[in-house]
């Protein structure tokens, strides 16, 4: 048996800001940066220029929207499984062009 004083469990405290940390809502940060009149080349919280992501973009199936590890080299459509590939083989070219247009692919199948 455990001693009575040691049966107390310790739980994590909910998130709280540190005592020396000042919480500022997004609107307040925006107003502060606008009023500071910083030079244009100095980055701020709202600067949209960011370096490109190092993580590769996720690719999704043009037909089902599932993650797509495969792409048809002829039609350039992405697909997730063999069933989708089989259905792509019987699609007319105008349907394939529609899928590619929705995805934003510029080179269309002729």
TrEMBL record:
This is Vps72/YL1 C-terminal domain-containing protein. The gene is Dana\GF22651. SMART domains: YL1_C. The keyword Nucleus applies. InterPro entries: INO80C/Ies6, Vps72/YL1_C. Residues 59-88 form the Vps72/YL1 C-terminal domain. The keyword Secreted does not apply. It is found in: Nucleus. One of its GO terms (cellular component) is Ino80 complex. It comes from the Eukaryota. Keywords: Nucleus, Transcription, Transcription regulation. GO terms for biological process: chromatin remodeling. Its main location: nucleus.
């Amino acid at each position: 048996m455990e001693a009575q004083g040691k049966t107390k469990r310790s739980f994590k405290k909910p998130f709280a800001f540190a005592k020396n940390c000042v919480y500022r809502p997004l609107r307040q940060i925006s107003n502060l940066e606008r009023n500071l009149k910083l030079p244009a080349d100095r980055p701020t919280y709202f600067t949209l220029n960011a370096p490109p992501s190092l993580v590769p973009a996720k690719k999704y199936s043009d037909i089902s929207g599932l993650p797509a590890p495969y792409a048809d080299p002829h039609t350039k459509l992405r697909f997730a499984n063999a069933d989708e590939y089989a259905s792509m083989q019987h699609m007319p070219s105008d349907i394939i062009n529609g899928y590619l247009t929705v995805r934003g692919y510029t080179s269309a199948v002729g």
